[in-house]
Amino acid sequence: MRFGVVPSSVRRDVLNWHGESGRAWLDDLPRTVWSLKRTWSLRMDGPPYDGGSHSYVVPVRREDDSPAVLKVIYLDDENRGEPTALHRYQGDGAVELYDYDPATGAMLMEKAVPGNRLKSTRFFGHKTPAAAWRRIGIATGLYRRLWRPYEPAAGFPDLPAATEMLDAWRAEYRDPDADVRRRLGDDRLREALARCDDLADAPETGIANRDTHLTNIVSAEREPWLVIDPKPYLAERAFDGGYFLFTQELYGPHSGRDLLRAVADGLGADAERVKAWALLRFAAHLAHDADERELDEVSKAMRELEDA
Predict the structure, then answer these.
(1) Are residues 128 and 82 part of one domain?
(2) What parts of the sequence cross the membrane (predicted)?
């Protein structure tokens, strides 16, 4: 099978987010994939996977006919450290990294079979609320396992630090533009600045994950569930919880104090620090990402967590 068509979501997001450099990456992609196939002795084993935002992911067969996945990413600050994390995980709770090309950031990794996403998995005998608690338990258990000390490895990218995010938020919220001030309001701006200061001194730092949600966990045979597509940062355990709590508070069926406790306990993290990271994530979403039509809904979800 020859090079497959780039999924429309990937093409759209790469062009929208990265402009001409994104177009150059897309133009070079067939040549990049062909070169990696030759280097790693691969053959295509199906069309590229749909979805995603800035990576071309396709099933392949290795020289010994074993299945694998080839992932070619548009390198940016958020995903640059993915191979570093997978190398450090060594397949413990996440898909295994077989090979890595530093020049392109491409990865050859384990194919999780059957690969069903945790978010859409139904559990027999569990109605929606109970199934949601079970998904939360599975996810937090995995991210708790994946948090570990960071040890630099030769040939792999260094990881960004969560303190850099705090510095960026602090600088923005001290002198917000008119739109950010309108979206957040003076009280939430002051509270966000205080949280940035409170979280600056972490009790411990290790490999944490920025993109913690139920879609990046899939079913497998080697383990019941494996994490894919990690976005590693040097951060405390509560950092993982903050990002996961944000997505569950905004999009899930549970909220408030019970959800906060379940996430913090599942990760083995301090609940107040988990809450603080989640509220900073809410603030960033309100300030920049939320559609105008969603502002009231997002603000209401944030208020439920503020009151937890």
Answers:
(1) no
(2) none
pLDDT in tens, the chain (308 residues): 456 688 888 888 889 888 999 899 999 999 999 999 999 999 999 999 887 778 999 999 999 999 999 999 998 888 899 999 999 999 999 999 999 999 999 999 999 999 999 998 888 766 678 889 999 999 999 999 999 999 999 999 999 999 999 999 999 999 999 999 999 999 999 999 999 999 999 999 999 999 888 999 999 999 999 999 999 999 999 999 999 999 999 999 999 999 999 999 999 999 999 999 999 999 999 999 999 999 999 999 999 999 99
pTM over 0.85: yes
Q: Residue 272 and residue 260: Cα distance in Å, rounded?
A: 9
Q: Are residues 146 and 197 in the same domain?
A: yes
Statement to judge: residues 139 and 277 lie in one domain: yes
Report the candidate in 265, 234, 87 with the shortest Cα–Cα distance to residue 161.
Answer: 234
The token duo for 237 is 């355990």
Q: Are residues 146 and 251 in the same domain?
A: yes
In this structure, the strands spanning 217-219 and 225-227 are: antiparallel
In a domain, 208, yes or no: yes
Contact 111, 59 (CB under 8 A): yes
Q: Does a structural domain hold residue 92?
A: yes
Provide φ and ψ at 177, rounded to 5°.
-80, 175
Residues 85 and 130 in one domain: no
